[in-house]
Sequence to fold (159 residues):
Amino acid sequence: MTTYPVRFLLNGTPVEVDVAAQDTLLETLRNKLWATEVKNGCGKGDCGCCAVLLDGRAVNSCLTLAVQANGKEVVTVKGLGNEDDPHPLQESFIRKGAIQCGFCTAGMIVSAKSLLDENPRPSPDEIREAVSGNLCRCTGYKKIIEAISDAAPKCSPSD
Ligand code: FES
Ligand code: FES
Fold:
């Protein structure tokens, strides 16, 4: 099978990986770069679990070809913060109890980050719209909307 070298920044670190033309960014991140924080839910664009930032915009990585990331910047939920230095969205999701099983959380936070970068003070309806492509089977969404709303004043685009 013909493969192509693809280079991009992954959470700030330059990576190079050989991919086939049909490989998705999701399978490349998880299976070749071990970015298993990016979740594989439906694999067809329905659930938002696999969302990552591609040059700052949230995309479903299951619908994005790995070759499309060439020369770009990919940020996963891990690139936003960690246990020692959490992003305000991560801190708010924990504090508000917006995480139950956690399967949707990585994609939810990535979508929220993309929203807040464009619209730093979104209304609850705007938040609902922004995460409408992210399915959660556990929380009923109320705490998720509250967590994003609470985090908004504490976020800056550079976070
Ligand atoms: S795994 Fe990509 S949208 Fe569901
Ligand atoms: S917390 Fe379980 S799917 Fe959202």
About this structure: The beta strands are 4-10, 13-19, 51-54, 57-60, 73-75. The chain has a mean pLDDT of 96. The pocket of FE2/S2 (inorganic) cluster (ligand 2) is lined by residues 99-104, 136-139 (CB under 6 Å). The chain has six helices and five strands.
